[in-house]
Amino acid sequence: MTGGLIQGSRQKMVPVEHYMALSAILFLIGALGVLTRRNAIVIFMSVELMLNAANLLFVAFAQQFEALDGQIFVFFVMTVAAAEVAVGLALIVAIFRTRGTIDIDEMNQLKG
Amino acid sequence: MDGNLITFYILALVAVGAALGMLFSRHTVYSALFLILNFGVVAVFYLMLGAPFIAMAQVTVYAGAIMVLFLFVIMLLGAEKLTGEDKIGWQKYFAGLLGILFLFAGGYQLSLVGVTEGLSISFPGGFGGPADIGELLFNEYLVPFEITSVLLLVAMIGAIVLTKDGRKKKSIQKTDPGSAARDRRPDSGK
């Protein structure tokens, strides 16, 4: 299990297809959360879950090709996610202040 | 079946279970806590994949900062009292159908196993450690690194501007020295 920490030890790799399947399932659950939940904060959390699933895939391929570039990209994705959460939550707080609710079904002023 | 694969399956079960818990939970706080569990399990996956630095960054940034921020906002807005009744109707079934399609995509990936099975991990010393990551980050990815620092600054400014009150303008008008004199004259409009 600690294949990365015990340097140079020989252990059988978990096939990268397993990680692809797991990442697909997590991404799917996040996408379902965005589509079916009405609470804006839970939608936001589902977006974070999707980003996380993509990160997992990055690191899995970084291991398979033994290239650290995948992990560097995860670093950047984490940074962007943190910035997005900060601004997004500020937005949600501002919306709550003016509308009194964060139920997205009530946010229909742009509806044609 | 070796230990690595068994560990992977157990952890994958926990991760998917936590994600489903976040999806179906009717209390927002429980959703946030399930997501923290999911992030923790993914951090363990990163350790299994030879990325100790990213694993620690995941725990620190995602589970430790982002989710705490979420919990702050949930408590601030009283969103834990919000329960999600489904007025959504037909979109539920469409989403479910898309979900099943996606699941087939994931299963198809799983059926391709055999290409990398049996390969052994051989990490050069220090792979995924801070020294290796730092060497790559500050040499080849220096420009994106600097750009993300600007991005964080912009996000900070944006967050502050978005939550700022608009009440400052009124107080400035009140201290306008001419307004008191103007208000006293009856024909100030002429």
What does this structure look like?
The complex is a heterodimer of chains A (112) and B (190). By secondary structure, chain A is an all-alpha fold. Chain A contains three helices and one strand; from the N terminus they run βααα. In chain A, helix 1 (16-36) runs antiparallel to helix 2. Chain A is elongated. The termini of chain A are far apart. In chain A, 54% of the residues are buried. Mean pLDDT of chain A is 85; it is low at 1-8. With 190 residues, chain B is mostly helical. The N and C termini of chain B lie far apart (92 Å). The chains are: A mainly alpha (112), B mainly alpha (190).
Alpha plus pi helix count of chain A: 3
Distance from N terminus to C terminus of chain A (CA atoms, Å) equals: 55 Å
Compute the gyration radius of chain A: what is it?
19 Å
* Classification by helices and strands of chain B: mainly alpha
The greatest interface here is: A-B, 79 and 96 residues
Helix run count of chain B: 8
Please, what is the average pLDDT of chain B?
Answer: 80
Question: Which runs of chain B of at least 5 residues are low in confidence (pLDDT < 50)?
Answer: none
Tags for this entry?
heterodimer, A: 112 residues, mainly alpha, 3 helices, disordered N terminus, B: 190 residues, extended
In short:
The complex is a heterodimer of chains A (112) and B (190). Chain A is mostly helical and 112 residues long.
What is the topology?
The complex is a heterodimer of chains A (112) and B (190).
Chain A: E1 11-12, H1 16-36, H2 40-64, H3 69-99
Helix pairs in contact in A: 1-2, 2-3
Chain B: H1 3-24, H2 28-48, H3 52-77, H4 90-111, E1 120-121, H5 130-139, H6 142-162, H7 168-174, H8 177-184
Helix pairs in contact in B: 1-2, 2-3
